[in-house]
Design brief:
The protein has 686 residues and is α+β, with helices and mostly antiparallel strands. It is 29% helix and 20% strand. The structure holds zinc ion.
Length: 686
């Protein structure tokens, strides 16, 4: 297949990397704390940025290099057996016989974002699980899409060529998703048709008239996706004109460098990464800073809540910053994808901390525990998932909270497919200095080339984030020197490391990496402990409410759930989840010593399905008092928080808190109970 081509590219990289290495001081052997891999060099075994693009700190391994196990495999299996794996039986947009994506002439009933949204996650799900049924099924669609390319280079639905939404010009957005489908397909199976296909399409884009390029609402805002695919191809072919196309795309993209270009939740979650992507080419730090600043600005206003997302129940709206505001499921998976990309581009581990915050605390609650349905909006405080209209408290009318596998949540229903499969591909990354990085911790096995080119296998055993211990075993056919990077999350100030059973005296810092740079022998072992402690976050902008964290997990009040079918069928029911126990509690906490206010209850950490109340491997017990005047409004939406500390005459009760991701009904930003003159009376509703 293409191994010869790959080795040629790799040898070109060896020359340039070698020249750069000569100028870099040799790194000492041993264990150290580092900000990231050395700059200015490139991994010799995996394709990363080709000059003049900035060198990549971390590089994605080819799909299939990482085999996930543990609870992540459990989630992926549920996805395969649930809505994503069976979406062709449910969604009219995934009907092979009527789709405009499968007709060689691009004619058909449905031809916009839904099919490629689903296919990019579905295909990757198959590759990550090595699930033959899914791979075969995805390949049927991919074959059909490859057959739609015409002599001009355009492919896919023909109606997109003259889209009403783009003033009669081409709607380039859906094809951006289809390109992602093809990139993964190539990485997995090395299909030699993919690169010429993409080359022809990008020539078409290059030749498309400037004044008509990236017109319409969605294409310019989401053009960073197009940019990523152009760089992907450039790094493989080296065709210099692709960088001209990248400039053209950037010049016609929404301008995220001048400030937040759009407050639609999905648009922001994927759009804000565009300047950092272009930074790889422009090499001007103003682009990287624009992405960081846009993130800080939106999170500083609408992200003053737990869960890693921001309040934008369609759009972020001025004044709507309470934790009752929702974050769309598309927003959750796009934000995760942005953070995964930014980790590799910048090497800054804070981005991947943000990814796991969403993955553990928000994504699971967007779906039913069996992954057979999802909802549109996941909110940090959300006490009734009934089907009723909750506008204007949330922006959209209609059902937004109840679970369904059907088209009521059309974009999310398809786009959610990529969440866990993309995550699983980021557990391990190659490093610029020919090593490996444990980026997202999870039980897995990774096979990769390191050091002098030796292929090693690292087995990772952990129940993280439900346990604080990560055990690695290195298997290698011969001794080989390479650096092993271990991410230290921002919340962990005292990581502990054992090498072959012996403690190391390493003083590692949060938001850095532990680097073990040594000559590895077969069967050597690393044990990393990331002690998790209880902490409180105070949300000053949301009335000094508090959230309770334990390591990367945030906790929510456990509320009794009544699951009630109201539509759909037995296989794919539409379901409401209604509360059966009180939820209107304020916490009684010692803010100076939060750990004294809670008891940590550890259960079996090795369950397959940790994201449900019954099986959640960890819970907290704490003290609370009810706030009787805190109610839901006439639409069943929880009333906004009021200023803490709050007065309560109610008795002190013991309450249970479970991980936010396991709680479909949840209070995760709590009022704090106070006493004396500083405590505020909760004002009743109108
Ligand atoms: Zn959506």
């Amino acid at each position: 297949m293409s191994s010869r081509k790959i080795s040629v590219i790799a040898s070109v990289l060896v020359v340039s990397a070698g020249a750069l290495r000569a100028a870099t001081a040799p790194q000492p052997v041993g264990v150290r704390s580092a900000l990231g891999p050395p700059k200015g060099i490139a991994n010799r075994f995996y394709i990363s940025n080709r000059p003049p693009l900035r060198r990549s700190a971390f590089v994605k391994l080819p799909i299939g290099s990482i085999t996930p196990s543990g609870w992540l495999r459990g989630e992926l299996r549920l996805e395969a057996d649930g809505m994503t794996g069976h979406l062709q039986e449910i969604s009219p947009w995934c009907d092979f016989n009527t789709s405009a994506w499968t007709d060689p002439a691009g004619q058909g009933k449905h031809g916009w974002e839904e099919l490629p949204y689903w296919l990019k996650g579905y295909g990757d799900l198959g590759y990550v699980l090595k699930d033959e049924r899914i791979i075969k099924d995805a390949s049927k669609w991919i074959e059909a899409i490859l057959a739609t390319q015409d002599s001009t280079g355009w492919f896919g639905p023909r109606e997109l060529l003259h889209s009403k939404d783009c003033d009669g010009h081409a709607d380039l957005w859906p094809n951006m998703l289809a390109l992602n489908v093809l990139q993964s397909w190539y990485e997995f199976g090395r299909d030699q048709r993919v690169m010429p296909f993409m080359t022809r399409y990008f020539k078409w884009e290059l030749n498309y008239p400037e004044q008509d390029f990236l017109r319409g609402y969605w294409p310019p805002i989401r053009a960073g996706d197009n940019l990523e695919s152009v760089y992907w191809l450039y790094n493989r072919t080296g065709d210099a004109w692709l960088l001209d196309l990248a400039k053209k795309i950037h010049n016609h993209a929404a301008d995220w460098t001048a400030g937040v270009a759009n407050l639609h939740n999905v648009n922001f979650a994927q759009g804000f990464r565009e300047p950092a992507e272009y930074w790889q080419q422009a090499n001007d730090d103003k682009y990287l800073h624009a992405t960081e600043r846009d993130y800080d600005q939106v999170m500083g206003e609408w992200g003053q809540v737990p869960g890693g997302g921001f309040g934008a129940d369609e759009n972020a709206r001025k004044g709507y910053i309470d934790p009752r505001q929702g974050f769309e499921t598309c927003g959750i998976v796009e934000y995760m994808h942005s953070f995964e990309m930014l980790m590799k581009i910048t090497g800054d581990p804070l981005w991947i901390d943000r990814c796991e915050d969403l993955a553990f605390n928000s994504l699971p609650a967007a779906l039913t525990p069996d992954l057979k349905g999802l909802h549109y909006l996941t909110c940090p405080n959300q006490v009734s998932l009934d089907r009723n209209d909750k506008s204007p408290g949330v922006q959209n009318g209609g059902t937004m909270f109840s679970y369904s596998a059907r088209e009521v949540y059309r974009c999310c229903q398809h786009n959610v497919a990529m969440g866990w499969p993309y995550y699983a591909q980021e557990l391990w990354l190659a490093t610029a200095d020919d090593g490996l990085c444990a980026s997202l911790y999870g039980s897995s096995e990774v096979k990769a080339r390191v050091g002098d080119g030796t292929q090693v296998t690292i087995s990772e055993q952990t129940a993280y984030p439900f346990s604080d211990t990560i055990e690695l075993k290195v298997s290698t056919p011969k001794v080989v020197r390479f650096p092993l990077y271990l991410r230290v999350p921002h919340w962990c100030d005292r990581p502990q490391l054992k090498l072959n059973g012996r403690a190391t005296g390493l003083q590692a810092r949060p938001d850095r990496f532990i680097v073990i740079d040594r000559t590895w022998k077969n069967d050597e072992r690393v044990a990393l402990r990331l002690p998790m402690k209880l902490s409180l976050r105070v949300w000053h902008k949301n009335h000094d409410s508090v959230s309770v964290d334990h390591g990367p997990l945030t906790f929510a009040l456990q509320i009794g759930e009544k699951w009630q079918k109201y539509g759909g069928d037995d296989q794919w029911p539409d379901t409401e989840v209604l509360p059966t126990t009180p939820w209107n509690y304020g916490l009684v906490v010692d803010e100076k010593d939060p750990s004294a206010s809670f008891q940590v209850i550890e259960r079996d950490p090795l369950v397959d399905r940790p994201f449900s109340p019954a099986t959640a491997p960890i819970a907290l017990r704490g003290k609370a008092r009810r706030i009787p005047k805190w109610k839901t409004d006439s639409k069943g939406l929880i009333e906004p928080l009021q200023q803490s500390p709050v007065k309560s005459e109610e008795p002190v009760e013991t309450v249970t808190l479970i991980p936010m991701g396991a709680a479909r009904l949840r209070i995760s930003a709590f009022p704090v109970i106070g006493e004396g003159p500083a405590a505020h009376e909760w004002r009743g509703g109108p």
